[in-house]
Amino acid sequence: MDNATKKLITDAVGNQPQSTVTVLSSLLAVEDAIGYIPKEAVEAVAQRMAATVNDVWAVATFYPNFRFDPPTEHRIEVCWGPSCHVMGATGVIAAAQDALQLSDEGDTPDGKATLRYNTCLGACSHAPVMAIDHHLAGPVTPDSARARIAASLSAGGRH
Amino acid sequence: MTTTAGTEIAGTEIAGTEAAGAEAAETESQFDGILAEANRRWEALTAGDAPWVRVGTGLAGEAAGGFETLAAARAALDAQGVKANVSEVGTLGLCFAEPLLDVQTPGGPRVFYQNVTPEMAERIVAEHVGGGNPVAEYALGYLGEREAGPEGIAHLDDHPMRALETRIALRNAGHIDPSDIYQYIANGGYAALNKALTAMTQDDTLNEVRSSGLRGRGGAAFPAGVKWGFLAGNPDPDKYILCNCEEGDPGAFNDRGILESDPATVVEGITIAGYACRANRGYIFIRHGHNQPIDRTRAVIAQAYELGLLGENILGSGFSFDVEVALTGDSYVSGEETALMEAIEGKRSMPRFRPPFPAQVGVFGQPSNINNVKTLAYVPEIIARGGQWFADIGTPADRDNGINGSSGTAILCLSGAITYPGLVEVPLGMTLRQVLFDMAGGAPNGKRMKLLQTGGPLGGVLSASDENLDLVLDFDVFRMAGAILGSGGIIVADEDTCAVDLTRNLIAFCQYESCGKCFPCRMGMSHLLEILERISRLEGTEEDLTLMRSVGENMQAGSLCGHGQLGFNPVSSALRYFGDEFEAHIREKRHTGDCPEQVFSPRLTRR
Ligand SMILES: Cc1cc2nc3c(=O)[nH]c(=O)nc-3n(C[C@H](O)[C@H](O)[C@H](O)COP(=O)(O)O)c2cc1C
Ligand code: SF4
Ligand code: FES
Ligand code: FES
């Protein structure tokens, strides 16, 4: 791991603005800063919180929002909650899989994008909803989802 | 503060608050000084010399393109050299009309434009903001005096979604800049806390909430005053009030809707709860990743500290209270009250055994009270107007028939196959039919409304039968009908939706979100999902129905928290109302709606 990333981790864990600092708040801060939880971060959090590395892993693996390897350039999320489901989320998910050449959640082989399913993106009145690089969009159709994914992939780097 | 608030006061420089505040303190109470400053700022915005443009950038606004519209409006103002104040606002409730942009010219009516694209924003800036002529063809409605309405534009309160509303918790939503506490104060905010601290004892305050009959809006509808009494009665000096905005229920967005639109009402509410319960600390607990509610809540908390509305010796009363935002990772069960405490402590959010109850041993081992966002959002108005005022809204008790009375309003999130999806606040006692048809316009495209999913996935489904549409919004009436009014999410499905497929989707959610602590829930959910997938594929057998019931009984009997205990509801309610569709799948090997070709249910096992 390069020193810049190490410093991002130290800063994220060390400079949390709120007064209640916990294992979970520290992990969320690291995720915000670098998009994943490397083992160095688990160690840094354990040290900061006077917890064992085991305890920190236990928390990190419980919440499915944490990933443990570096993120790809783009994060594509599609909601499969019931509002979105009745409005056609299954078709949107199929379109997203197709556009990314994936058969399930996960990273594309070229490492450019990640497909994630979400239980509710919080904009249910605009179902079906997706989020590209944390930006919500909806209602989407399979075609508009494909177009949005294509546009974000061709726009390059992370937003 | 005007810059942090995201409101740019163009033209008129607004003088610093410190000087004005300090001067006033000599003669007036501390609060009067703050109020005077708030009023002065509000005057400048609404009746100064520049128009005020507000753009909806809540979660639904964002999804519809609100940020693009906002950027286009700002760019057009710059390019055309037009002076105006621009604010982001939360949700007005008319989500179907997002992106919503509205223009208020000084002293004039406020005109709302619907589905505003960046191109439309440019024209509105040129013709209305710059030229003073509303663009009637883009308008949804106006607010202001009826006689003075602009030509060709209807009054917004005549829109069916607003005509039947009674707004208490949502009174400011869509109207004020949620990140600017002065705007909240100028609209009546903090008068209640000031009243409680200066004119009421802690017991008076508690009794006011008791007499309001306010019932918790987080699901169980437990009387808030009674719960507060448990905490108030605990002599420990270090006590907590927890505000629950986990809101993991898909189809529910009212808690985040309140925090992204008017977080100050919740911050004031939790402070009043602290005073009434003699607590000294509060947490507002939000799922990470939802930036609008998180950032806006944090902004008003910081401002409340600056103005002496939080922290030591609030408004000089001697009462001290601290509040901060705590975030959780993705976990539906972390909304359960004891799991939430684990999450605040930074652990895996798995429910605890009870007793001890939270009022004895809560977060960090200290006595705690937990309420939903909506519950706390009502508190300022209850204190300002009196408990009886709130109790008079809603449905009366009829104890012989198991009805305890539901006072106040229901804050409903309407989504799915409905003409006007959005957020409405209506008096309890209204019927589902009034909400779904008179207000929200029924199912679109001439389709038949078939099914309602209320109160989150655990609430199960109701058929949209005449009998069910006549149900009145009342916590006990819903419970007796086998549904949950709960947090207020209503997902509507039309005739194209297959009841079996939707049930499978709901159980897939329950499986995904089981925290894994007790195996009847963890295994039961997986088992139910397998069976439902089988039935969806037309491979189910008669025994599968018996098997599901037996799994459901075990889950109900052997689960620690509501997730497992109520987790069979989606299946039992679907069997009750749509048993024929299960039969069709099993016996006749026939689909009963647009079942997707490929059955899609993500899986997750937490243990
Ligand atoms: C699995 C599960 C999830 C829950 N999620 C939430 C939630 O997201 N928000 C909420 O306010 N209450 C939720 N509750 C209910 C809380 O446990 C608690 O009853 C509620 O926050 C109390 O607030 P109230 O008295 O104001 O209703 C959940 C309960 C269970 C069993
Ligand atoms: S019932 Fe389910 S969600 Fe609740 S504690 Fe048990 S396993 Fe966890
Ligand atoms: S269910 Fe999809 S955004 Fe809420
Ligand atoms: S989000 Fe703006 S009206 Fe609902």
SSE blueprint:
The complex is a heterodimer of chains A (159) and B (607).
Chain A: H1 3-14, H2 23-34, H3 39-49, H4 53-62, E1 74-79, H5 82-86, H6 89-100, E2 106-107, E3 113-118, E4 130-132, E5 135-137, H7 142-154
Parallel strand pairs in A: 1-3
Antiparallel strand pairs in A: 1-4, 2-3, 4-5
Helix pairs in contact in A: 1-2, 1-3, 2-3, 3-4, 6-7
Chain B: H1 17-27, H2 30-47, E1 52-56, H3 59-64, H4 66-80, E2 85-89, E3 101-104, E4 110-113, H5 118-130, E5 139-143, H6 160-163, H7 181-186, H8 191-199, H9 202-212, H10 224-232, E6 240-245, H11 254-261, H12 263-277, E7 281-287, H13 291-306, E8 322-328, H14 337-344, E9 368-372, H15 373-385, H16 387-391, E10 394-395, E11 406-407, E12 409-416, E13 422-427, H17 432-439, E14 449-454, E15 461-463, H18 466-469, H19 475-480, E16 489-494, H20 499-513, H21 519-536, H22 542-558, H23 562-565, H24 569-586
Parallel strand pairs in B: 1-2, 6-7, 6-9, 7-8, 12-16
Antiparallel strand pairs in B: 1-3, 3-4, 4-5, 10-11, 12-13, 14-15, 14-16
Helix pairs in contact in B: 1-2, 4-5, 8-12, 8-15, 9-10, 9-12, 11-12, 11-13, 12-15, 20-21, 20-24, 21-22, 22-24
The complex binds flavin mononucleotide (FMN), iron/sulfur cluster (SF4) and FE2/S2 (inorganic) cluster (2 copies).
The site of one FE2/S2 (inorganic) cluster has 11 residues of chain A, from helix 5.
